[in-house]
Amino acid sequence: MAGQIPQRFIDDLLARVDVVEVVGERVKLKKTGRNHSGLCPFHQEKSPSFTVSADKQFYHCFGCGAHGNALRFLMEYDKLRFPEAVEQLAARLGLEVPREGADDPRAQARERKRKEGVNLLELAASFFRERLRMPEGQGARDYLERRGLSPEVVRDFGIGYAPDAWEGLKRHLGERGIGEAVQVEYGLLVHREDSGRTYDRFRDRVIFPIRDIRGRTIAFGGRVLGDAKPKYLNSPETPVFHKGRELYGLFEARQANPRLERLVIVEGYMDVVALAQFGIRNAVATLGTATTEDHLSRLFRMVDEVVFCFDGDRAGRQAATRALETVLPQMIDGRQARFLFLPEGEDPDTLVRREGAEAFEDRVTCASPLSEFLFEQAAEGRDLARLEERERYASRVLGAIGRLPEGVLKSLLLAELSRRTGVDQSDFESLMAAERPSGHEAEPPPEASPATQAPVWQGEEQGAGRAGSLGLMARVLQLLVHEPGLVERLPEDEDWCDDGAPDGRLCREVVRLLKAGRYRSAQVLLAHFHGTAEGERLAALARRELLIPAAARATELEGLVEHFRRHQRRRSPQEAFDALLARERAGERLSREERQRLMALLMELKG
């Protein structure tokens, strides 16, 4: 197929590149015999289980099973597509990546022109950076200083200055043999049809280079220093820049966070840069357009959670509704979307300066999940006590649910809509099936589990996959993080809490803190564990959508505790002894009753 990379080139590339060097640039490795080892970059661990073999040109993690060659590592670690990973490896060796069918003169001309355009834009970026350091850039430097930006952040984002001249960049590039036509094509010059005159597009503006995922400059954004309009100006669409696909700050976010888990979408360059100044290096901005499906497809390839950040006014709410419509088809199981509304009159730039980074991060963590915002915006302005209004409300929510991919989230939202409206879920499913184009029959709904076998709201399987499915103990933690007051519904003793279960020890610690009465909000509880692995775990649970209605949460918690009690009653003496002994060896002080129980179990096992 034309355009494919020949297999022989890929084989040759892998034979010439050293996987130890590629991995070692991103992971701290230590020589251990013939291999190298280090902490796995694909899962949390304290002892190294990640091995890289120079002989086999292969990496493998004995903890999570991740493995592959240099190409696979770049695809997984840098979140690159296969062709991008090949190009990155080839660039290390100074090689051009061939394409089957590349002898087509038209294809060769297009590729040559694209590379010339990228080189031209890099020259322009260098010009803007130089002008910022020169005397003529003093006003821009003063502006950046007033905005509180450090030289390090200015450097990381490649910020520059376009001088207050009509032909400054034009002359600079012309002296290097670059014609006006190509400068116009790549958005650096404006061509006036009436006079035939060309002049610099960006004048007397702070310049923000827009980079692609590989860090190449593909466009610019400019913020005016004077009173000229518009206040912000972007490059036009060019052969290498399409605003519906690119996001400002994405390259920089990946550089600062090799293991990105969440990305926050804000409105402008200054929001991204201001947040970076406060250490929040996971923000990106759209470029003069609403968030598109292409934007979200790109983001969800890198992270499982996207947070939309909007002003709290009417315009912000309308923008959030449009974002909701766009994100719905992307919401396969395991992905999360949240909606953060800022206080009126604030933007991320002003808010992070006033409240600080930790408070802003707390706002992001506690942002409204998609499910909550969906029901809230559908109910806005409606009197749900009236049947007709409830019908419109249900129709709107049902239409949104219909845009979701098949999965657990879709089923849970249907169940929640049924609960809120009093309409059977099967009726909603029939309505949705009737709306589908012919030839696509709905799958039958899964049979409900008997209530005696599991808690009422068991929507996820026990275990841990990439989508982050929750075990039963984690569900207790999630309930307590979302609603700490539920601790009052727990029994006085903690015998039900199994320290040997995943999240068991953390659950016991959280319960004790909540019972002590000092941590009665999610934010304060998270702050107690800040900077620890336990804190990361609790923050992850706080970010997960909790679809259990408020009225059903206490019953859910009590059902989970009863499940653990039944399990412990079925536990063998050896299992009970091992669990108590493990707690004692870990340094925990057992109660007198627990020590007596330990001794009794020991005698029983020896008898």
UniProtKB/TrEMBL annotation:
Residues 434-462 are annotated as: Disordered. PROSITE patterns: TOPRIM. GO terms for biological process: DNA replication, synthesis of primer. Its EC number is 2.7.7.101. GO terms for molecular function: DNA binding; DNA-directed RNA polymerase activity; zinc ion binding. Residues 261-343 form the Toprim domain. GO terms for cellular component: cytoplasm; DNA-directed RNA polymerase complex; primosome complex. Binds 1 zinc ion per monomer. It catalyses: ssDNA + n NTP = ssDNA/pppN(pN)n-1 hybrid + (n-1) diphosphate. Pfam families: DnaB_bind (PF10410), DnaG_DnaB_bind (PF08278), DNAG_N (PF08275), Toprim_4 (PF13662), Zn_ribbon_DnaG (PF01807). Its cofactor is Zn(2+). Keywords: DNA replication, DNA-binding, DNA-directed RNA polymerase, Magnesium, Metal-binding, Nucleotidyltransferase, Primosome, Transcription, Transferase, Zinc, Zinc-finger. Contains an N-terminal zinc-binding domain, a central core domain that contains the primase activity, and a C-terminal DnaB-binding domain. Monomer. Interacts with DnaB. Belongs to the DnaG primase family. RNA polymerase that catalyzes the synthesis of short RNA molecules used as primers for DNA polymerase during DNA replication. This is DNA primase. It comes from Halomonas beimenensis. The gene is dnaG.
